[in-house]
Amino acid sequence: MTILSHISHCEDGNDTNNCFKVLTDEEKMLLENNRTEIQFTKGETIVKQGTKATDILYLKEGLVKIGVNSGDNNLILCVKTKNHFIGTENIYGYDYHPYTVTALEDSTICFIDISAIRQLLKQNHTFNAEMYKVITNNSLITYDRFFSLTQKQLHGRFADILLCLSKNVFRAQKFDLPLSRKDLAALTGMAPESVIRIIKDFKTDKIIATKGKKIEILNQPLLEKISTVG
Amino acid sequence: MTILSHISHCEDGNDTNNCFKVLTDEEKMLLENNRTEIQFTKGETIVKQGTKATDILYLKEGLVKIGVNSGDNNLILCVKTKNHFIGTENIYGYDYHPYTVTALEDSTICFIDISAIRQLLKQNHTFNAEMYKVITNNSLITYDRFFSLTQKQLHGRFADILLCLSKNVFRAQKFDLPLSRKDLAALTGMAPESVIRIIKDFKTDKIIATKGKKIEILNQPLLEKISTVG
DNA sequence: TATTTATACTGATATTCGTCATTATTTATG
DNA sequence: CATAAATAATGACGAATATCAGTATAAATA
């Protein structure tokens, strides 16, 4: 399903990163004193592209989409699950949010002051190394999606997203889809009508089954094949 | 031309990074003792996707392409100019080259031992911060290209690449194009025939002029407009 | 619960773009 | 220098996919 071995198409909701584990109690307190925890309800905008970044985000609970928009064009770079950092681009070098983050489910976000993050990166090299891993993983996921969306056609792209949602985001064959058809379109770089048609195709071929917002993967091997064939 | 203010579509060949400037003499020696400088001629593969990474690359002189391939599909993620790091994904977290690096012009590459880089990141936080900037910039460029290739159609995509080559890579209205039509196709996510047709279109509209490998931008404002309109 | 509004779906049509086959031109090689 | 090989260019065609217009369904709101 992917060009990069080991690297999946999107974030993994259960494999938490090790960033916090490597901190001393004192360092944890520093973090604690420099963060604000805020609840967002489904649909709410968490940060908006172009605004000044003063914090690094940590998704404690929930699910969000990372989107880039310009005019009518809409692109969802990726979907982030709980226990992931968001906005690591703003740690050093760029002071504005490069994308819009929106809650797909009710979510709990920690806003961590950038200066606190910098302090920790400076004083705890293991934390620093873990942060590199987080950022590197982001890059690899982006390359993989870049490849998928530019080199595969509709069915392959949609197979990629379905596999990612099933394997990494929900870790189940059957799950509630929190994304609208329009979201799925922005995530796969196609028109919403195309999304609908592909879902229909996959249903007639017994690859998936849907009922309301529920979606179930019936034939994963075939989906994998569609993904690789493109 | 881009969704992210300040951020251009590709690397800038003249704005060198500050990574080395912030090192002490002793640290520079550490680097000196842990690097190997190798010459590559045009067309040579510098590192190959999937192979084990033991070094971080620094392009001292020349021009390279960063490509991802799988089967027949070919994608050029970006073009890197001199004075840029390559393979920062391998600093921590991932031990294999995620892409193939190929020389577009005769190039001089420094292979820097990863452990030396890690040592410097650990002991010199300013160097560390500069490395974050390098990596962040890479991410932003990738997002921008991601957007271009998935949201714009052929003419818009090709305008983006032309503007990038002119403004950032060669810093001239007129330059020798070191990329084949096939390369340009892989860079813009289209068929080589489409590249040829668009070049023809741009020539009939007096937007560009070509002569052999030389290419000249005649109407940059219009090119910018084509880029934004998509 | 009725009414509006947003989302999902469908079919017909148009367009963009890739593929294929062929020829010209450049570059590499004996 | 001649020949082969790679690259570039062109036109005809077809496939993939977007757009549009319309309907059905679900969700939000009065």
Quick rundown:
The structure is a homodimer of 230-residue chains. Chain A is α+β, with helices and mostly antiparallel strands and 230 residues long. The first copy, chain A, has seven helices and eleven strands.
Note down, in words, how this protein is organized.
The structure is a homodimer of 230-residue chains. Chain A is an alpha+beta fold and 230 residues long. Chain A is 40% helix and 25% strand. Chain A is built from seven helices and eleven strands. Chain A has helices at residues 25-32, 114-123, 125-151, 154-169, 181-188, 192-204, 220-229; strands at 35-40, 45-47, 55-61, 63-70, 73-81, 84-86, 100-103, 107-113, 174-176, 208-211, 214-217. Chain A has a four-stranded antiparallel beta sheet. A four-stranded antiparallel beta sheet of chain A has the order 2-7-4-5. A three-stranded antiparallel beta sheet of chain A has the order 9-11-10. In chain A, helix 2 packs across helix 3 (125-151), helix 4 crosses helix 7 and helix 5 (181-188) packs across helix 6. Chain A is elongated and about 55 Å long. Chains A and B meet through strand 4, strand 5, helix 2 and helix 3 of A and strand 4, strand 5, helix 2 and helix 3 of B. Chain A binds a DNA duplex (30 and 30 nucleotides) through residues 153-154, 180-182, 190-194, 196-197, 200, 212.
